[in-house]
Amino acid sequence: MRKLFMVIVIVLLISGCVKEKDATSETKGEPDQTLEQENETEATDTAQDEEEGDAEKATSELGDLEVKLSGEAIIEEDQIRIEGESNLLPGSSIYSSGVTDGGFASSTFIDTAEVQEDGSFSFEFSGISTSTTVKLNLYTNNQTEEHYGENLEKATGPQVYVTDTHGAFEVKAEFYIDVDQPMPYTIPIEIPQWKEKPDDYGEPEVWMEADVDSDHRYLYFKGKSNLVEGTKVGGNLLKASGIIDAFSFGFTRVNPDGTFELRVPYHKLQKGMYMPIRFEPKNNSWEDVLNTYGEHGEKLKGELVEEDGEDQYVELIVEIDAPDFDPPKDVGLTVEDEEVKIQMPDDLLFDFDESTLKADAKETLNDVMKDLQKLDENTEIQINGHTDNVGDSDYNLNLSKERAEAVWAYLEKSGDVTGLDVQIEGFGDTKPIASNKEEDGQERNRRVEIVINPK
After folding, report:
1. In this predicted structure, what is the pLDDT of residue 24?
2. Residues 6+ apart with CB under 8 A from 376
3. What pLDDT band is residue 14 in, cutting at 50, 70 and 90?
4. Measured between alpha carbons, how far is residue 70 from residues 136, 385, 404 in Å?
5. Collapsed DSSP state (helix, strand, coil) of residue 222
6. pLDDT of residue 102
7. What is the mean pLDDT of residues 269-297?
8. What average pLDDT score do residues 56-75 get?
9. Where is the composition biased (Basic and acidic residues) (predicted)?
10. Which of 332, 381, 100, 373 is closest to 214 using CA atoms?
11. If you placed Cys at 452, which of 101, 340, 357, 375 could pair as Cys (CB 3.0 to 4.6 Å)?
12. For the chain, give me the number of helices (H) and strands (E)?
């Protein structure tokens, strides 16, 4: 019995030790788990603190005299939305307006929005069919005049601009809606970053320089000068003969640092084309500009100064680099980097709803063929058919391909172009170059393109 008692005691002692060890192990595991939970809690608290800090910082900046307007514009077929951010005083108003490519005011964009407690604001507009520059202005009222000055003269920052009246300023943001871009798309509304003004900024001896680039719709002139802010510059694109190229014009105003950006639409580039970028005081009514250069430009000096009776003006000639092609009348020629597009409206080549070439089309294609025969052997080209969006999509797709094939069949049979690397495609209504909302846009979209050196 005694031996049995001793065995039982030993078993109980061992069992107790095991339980104590397990309990100890569990107790040792608890600090690790607690530490992990504490780390997660601290990370969450840190993120919340950062968000709250950002919110507090944004709130603390509201009403800062260095004003900021930004956000984005969402462009859709039937609606345009602006989601804006600012550090303007809550309760302030933002006034919106728009000017079309043709220089006409757009009633679509006339509206106001109130700045909310967090500095945000928003607009909603109906869709548009014409490319438009949209401007957002701080609207002056008793509240803004008291805070930013009667003429906004207390406001600072890169979004404060001079106006046509001396001593009066505007706070604005601008962006450009291109209706020829595939929709939907988003445009960032950004705060500009101006460079330092030239040392001779505002001097009567004026200089200008500009570089030009292009895509398949516009010529882009990026320039710099010592002209004062608000000076109006621009002009008409001219052919080598000096004749104006119809509908190819543009005007803009000089930025606070003397730079300017000018966008000019075009249809056909030709050898010898040039762009005279002019500043004509007689066509500029801004007080600061006229005070600087004279109402008739009589204070102007320098190599770029020209005379017109009693008036003086500044003119910078920018030559346009164009391919050595001579497309026939009504056939477009556009360039983007090394890619060249010869654009032929469908009514030059085909009768309505047909894919058989008209008799007159052969004369047009013969002229186009002369340019294609100048190309090096194995040059890659694409012949692409396009339609508007009227009718059945599948039918339009098939029609566009048949038309592209008809063009190539004639070129291949009639000229020495067999050494080219040719691809033929029909795109139907999937690649418009203009809005299909109006007849003019539909007409532009119905075309056959020959693309040389496609991207």
Report:
1. 43
2. none
3. very low
4. 10, 40, 45
5. strand
6. 81
7. 96
8. 87
9. 21-31, 436-449
10. 332
11. 340
12. 7, 22
Q: Calculate helix-pair angle for 359-372, 393-414, nearest 10 degrees.
A: 70
pLDDT value at residue 57: 54
The closest of 294, 244, 292 to 270, measured between CA atoms, is: 244
Predicted pLDDT at 36 = 58
The DSSP result for 312-345, as a single string, is EEEEEEEEPP--S--PPTT-EEEEETTEEEEEEE
21 band by pLDDT with thresholds 50, 70 and 90: very low
Query: What value does the CA radius of gyration of the chain take, rounded to a whole number of Å?
Result: 34
Question: CA–CA separation, 273 vs 326, rounded Å?
Answer: 12
Please give, one letter per residue, the 3-state secondary structure of 258-270.
CEEEEEEECCECC
Tell whether the torsion through CA atoms of 28, 32, 35 and 37 is positive or negative: negative
Q: Tell me the C-alpha distance between 108 and 119, whole Å.
A: 24
Nearest Cα neighbor of 248 from 273, 222, 282 is 273
Going by the DSSP 8-state scheme, the letter that residue 430 receives in this structure is S
Rounded distance between C-alpha atoms, residue 121 and residue 112, angstroms: 10
User: In Å, how far are 367, 407, 421, 434, 448 from 424, measured between CA atoms?
Assistant: 20, 10, 10, 22, 11
Place of tokens 């430009």: 297
Q: Say if residues 235 and 275 touch (Cβ distance below 8 Å).
A: yes
Residue 130 token pair: 């014409």
pLDDT at 136 over 90: yes
Which pair of tokens denotes residue 250?
């543009």
Confidence of residue 46 (pLDDT cuts 50, 70, 90): low
Residues 6 or more apart whose Cβ sits within 8 Å of residue 155: 65, 66, 67, 138, 148, 149, 169, 171
Percent over 70 (pLDDT), the chain: 87
Q: Which two tokens stand for residue 244?
A: 């104006």
Q: Could you read off the pLDDT of 146-202 as tens digits, one per residue?
A: 999 999 999 999 999 999 999 999 999 999 999 888 889 999 999 999 999 999 999
Residue 158 token pair: 């890169």
Q: How far apart are CA 132 and CA 107, in angstroms?
A: 11
The DSSP output letter for 300 is -
Give the mean pLDDT of the chain: 89
Structure tokens at 433: 């170059």
Query: What distance in Å separates the CA atoms of residue 216 and residue 279, rounded to the nearest whole number?
Result: 27
The pair phi, psi for residue 403, each rounded to 5°, is -70, -40
pLDDT band at 19 (very low <50, low <70, confident <90, very high): very low
- Taking the C-alpha atoms of residue 210 and residue 223, their distance in angstroms, rounded to an integer, is 4
| 341, two tokens | 């597009």
